[in-house]
């Protein structure tokens, strides 16, 4: 039986877009009034535990949380109001790899979320 190991990660993307355009090649550039902003956040965690029970096993248990947000004008509304759009997701899952022999294994898993 081996020691349980863990891996955790956190990442975040945060961006804002500004753009400029001109009506024709002789006109000055003007800033577009639409400035969308996105922010995506991901948190992952994983535990791995090797053990013996009628062969070698590797049990992996993981979780993930994802939060995505967008602030933007809705072109369909044809107004200058910024709306917030977003989604939150999470998942939990477990997997067991069972080595019946050195050359043959079964893998089974469950997922929720």
Automatic annotation (TrEMBL):
Gene3D superfamilies: TonB-dependent receptor, beta-barrel domain
Keyword terms of this UniProt record: Cell outer membrane, Membrane, Receptor
InterPro entries membership: Beta-barrel_TonB, Beta-barrel_TonB_sf
Domain TonB-dependent receptor-like beta-barrel span(s) in chain numbering: 19-111
A GO CC term attached to the entry: cell outer membrane
Domain of life assignment: Bacteria
Localization terms from the record: Cell outer membrane
Protein name: Outer membrane receptor for ferrienterochelin and colicin
């Amino acid at each position: 039986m081996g020691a349980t190991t863990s891996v955790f990660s956190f990442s975040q993307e945060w961006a804002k877009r500004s753009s400029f355009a001109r009506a024709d090649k002789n006109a000055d550039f003007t800033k577009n009034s639409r400035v969308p902003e996105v922010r995506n956040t991901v948190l992952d965690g994983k535990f791995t535990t090797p053990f013996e029970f009628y062969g070698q096993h590797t049990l992996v248990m993981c979780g993930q949380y994802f939060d995505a947000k967008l602030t933007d004008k809705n072109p369909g509304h044809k107004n200058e109001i910024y709306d917030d759009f977003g989604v939150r997701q999470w998942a939990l899952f477990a997997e067991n790899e069972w080595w019946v022999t050195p050359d043959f294994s079964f893998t089974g898993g469950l997922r929720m979320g």
